[in-house]
Amino acid sequence: MRKLFSLAVLIGAFSINASAQLTIHIQLSPHLKGPYTGKLLVYTLSDTAQHFGNDASENEAAFSITVNNWTPERTITLSESANFLNKRMDELADGYYRMIAILDTNNSERRKLAVGNLYTRKEEVAKVVKGKPTTVNLVLNFAMEEQPFKENDSTKMVKFLSPSLTSSKNKNTYIIAGLFLPPSYHKDKKRTYPVIFINPGWGGTHYHAMYDKVRELYGVGLGLEKIYVFLNPEAQTPYGLHAFVDSRINGSWGTALVNEFIPYLIANYRVASNPKLHFLTGQSSGGYGSLWLALHFPDKFGGTWVTSPDPLDFSNFTGVNLYKDKNFFFDNERKERGFMKVNGQYRTTIRKVVQLERFEGEGGQQQSFEAEFGIPNAAGRPIPLMDNQTGVIAPSVVNAWKAYDMALYTVAHIKELKKLAGPVYIYVGENDNFSLNESANAYKAKTAKTGLNIKVITVPEADHFSVRNAAMSKEMQKEIDAIIKSVQ
């Protein structure tokens, strides 16, 4: 599941006029020559004691407009007819507002701060008083650049051109990963190593290989020497994480990983060729992706450890039964479904979160599911699971998703899954913030009598983010080491 979104930014050369109350002049800095085409997103924050943090708030007003061929010489006026979230511009209550904006020009990756997108470094504050004109001058002055990957003897970046994905997408498409190599790698040039593939959750990329704290979280360096491969599930996908799942929209990333990327690592980085020495682990969306890989390629991995996976059983999809419920936003008593539970209390609702994502454009968590599990429309985009305004669920889309319901898949493929080369462990927190423990336990109930080497473990008092910790990873490494010793 996604975490909440980071913008410490400002705005560029447009005018926003709210019934003569508010005018925001947005300009491009002269050094940003353009021309730029994309979606301009303008965010507000009514509590000026706060600053914009990990995510735009689903409770605040925001506005958007599509920009074409924008250059510094041009000032554009965003009228009251602009797309809005929660409130139109002329509905803003009197008070002070922080404002930021971003111009989303990158149509190949989901992140608002993806390479090439423009933003302002500074938050501006405007005072809105009905009947009194207020003018704010903002400048888009920064373009996101690609983060450098800092290589050394232990840490390497791999950018592998996938033949199958390139062919199917008709453009160069890469599997990108960060490798962390063991201490003896450069000393013993003939030695091969077991490998652990790390499939991260929302916001995780190959850059995680560079960071000590992230490596520690996955137990890197504990026990027997291994190569660690930090996968990037966000590369070249505008609709959210592909999670290395074969998708009718994103493409066959899982097959490319197994049939192309792993042989490349064996040939070029001395990864052991025995699939029983290939291991999977993943968190959240990457947890679902790791389980999907283990179940669809049962003889290709020696063991799988996942934490807080995205919904495994679609009869409980973040609290919604996709097979029985009619509405994604409201329960049968027309009560809004809560979302993001913290200390027993919901912070927001599913409706608000989905509508914020739809407002922002491509690549939110819900669209990520729709691209991962669903089918494309005539333009190749994911068909929505529900009506964006009413929340009414589309039965035809649910039917298309069934192939990705891991409970249904497991029960239907028991014979093939007897080939599992190693154990599968699924860890969920008792207090998962997105009710993913309930989905995992529904999966457990349906698969309990299959006799498969799959275990679902509920961790008392843990939430979505605290299930995976140093202690859990230490235990995982012990279990992996035991398998390695039994194979070698």
TrEMBL record:
Keywords: Signal. Residues 1-20 form the signal peptide. Pfam families: Esterase (PF00756). InterPro entries: AB_hydrolase_fold, Esterase-like, Mycobacterial_A85_antigen. This is Putative esterase. It comes from Chitinophaga costaii.
